[in-house]
């Protein structure tokens, strides 16, 4: 079926498939970052209820290292800020990829309809 497409249409179709894969990757990264952000915010909220003199530990790889309240709070606040920026960047990237995908999809649809020789519309053509 794809072999009968004009080369330009085939190229657009491949580009669409690549964009779809990119959109999926960005979406997965965003979801992962949002999950990490929610966990960091929850930890920061929980930290507010902890006595500042309590013994605390920080996970470093497979180890738990003793830390103090201020260091734990600073680390969590930095993590939250960093993840908020990351989620914002991924949201913008997701929008750009989606817009590019929709434009390319429209171009391909017009290309294929134009190639039909004007024998009638192939469908309502997404408005």
From TrEMBL:
Q: Which SUPFAM superfamilies match?
A: Prefoldin
Spell out the Gene3D superfamilies in the cross-references: 1.10.287.370
Q: What is the lineage of its organism?
A: Archaea, Methanobacteriati, Methanobacteriota, Stenosarchaea group, Halobacteria
Keyword line = Chaperone, Cytoplasm
Q: Give the start-end ranges of region Disordered.
A: 21-44
Subcellular localization, per the record?
A: Cytoplasm
Which InterPro entries does the entry mention?
PFD_beta-like, PfdB, Prefoldin
What is one GO cellular-component annotation here? cytoplasm
Subunit-structure text = Heterohexamer of two alpha and four beta subunits.
The gene name reads pfdB
Described by its record, this protein's role is as follows:
Molecular chaperone capable of stabilizing a range of proteins. Seems to fulfill an ATP-independent, HSP70-like function in archaeal de novo protein folding.
A GO molecular function assigned to this protein is: protein-folding chaperone binding
Name the GO terms of the biological process aspect: chaperone-mediated protein complex assembly; protein folding
Question: What family, per the record?
Answer: Belongs to the prefoldin subunit beta family.
Polar residues compositional bias: what residue ranges?
A: 22-36
Q: In which organism is this protein found?
A: Haloferax profundi
Protein's recorded name: Prefoldin subunit beta
PANTHER family for the chain: PREFOLDIN SUBUNIT 6 (PTHR21431)
């Amino acid at each position: 079926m794809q072999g009968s497409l004009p080369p330009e249409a085939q190229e657009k179709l491949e580009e669409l498939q690549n964009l779809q894969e990119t959109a999926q990757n960005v979406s997965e990264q965003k979801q992962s970052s949002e999950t990490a952000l929610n966990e960091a915010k929850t930890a920061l909220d929980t930290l507010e209820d902890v006595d500042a003199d309590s013994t605390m530990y920080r996970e470093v790889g497979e180890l738990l290292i003793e830390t103090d309240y201020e260091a734990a709070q600073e680390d969590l606040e930095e993590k939250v800020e960093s993840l908020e920026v990351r989620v914002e960047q991924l949201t913008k990237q997701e929008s750009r990829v989606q817009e590019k995908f929709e434009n390319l999809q429209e171009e391909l649809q017009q290309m294929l309809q134009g190639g039909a020789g004007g024998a009638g519309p192939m469908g309502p053509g997404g408005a």
